[in-house]
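task queued by scheduler; priority normal; single chain, no ligands, no partner chains; default sampling; output format set to structure tokens
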Amino acid sequence: MTESGAEQPIRGSGNLIQRVIRGIDRILEYAEVFIVGGSILVMAIVMVTHVLGRTFFRIGIPGVTEITELLIILITFVGVSYAVRRARHISMSALYDQLRGTARKALLVFICLLTGTLLFYLAWEALGYVQTIHGRGRTSSALNIPLWMIYAVLPVGFFLAGLQYWLTALRNLTTPGVFRSFTEREVYDEVPTENGGTSTGSDQNKQ
């Protein structure tokens, strides 16, 4: 009775920490979706308005190319974190797919920790680059927008992506099963069988 009672606070604190992490992660996900989706929508509106203006009124939007390039930067580096969160990033899995069980999970944890560390390093270097641009007072050629405000998304995007990789490693270390991201459990796509039905990769592994 004493031992089980002592374990309850530990489990409760662990669940509380996971709930806090999930809450913060969800807020960040909403922010990423809003930024990426909003940027794509703004870019579409700007491009369509520019084309219509040039076609019917012979007047386009000043600096439309520059606006598009800046929005692409924003979408790209914020989208990196979102892709990692949803496990939609490109991965080299030739060796990983050959492993099963503990070895597979251990390799995934190692990859996540190493990749997260690399992204944190890139975030640090990008932060130095942004500080250099800020110090030089560089601005865009057409709209005179301070470039450091745009490139500030680089260290933020790298940091959030690295954080997602480390959260994935934490989830795999503390939760049974294999998770490709903090919220996405690893699953196999359905594949056709000889009798015309379908089966999952996990079913095939059991046979």
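post-processing summary
- DSSP finds six helices and two strands in the chain.
- The two ends are 42 Å apart (CA to CA).
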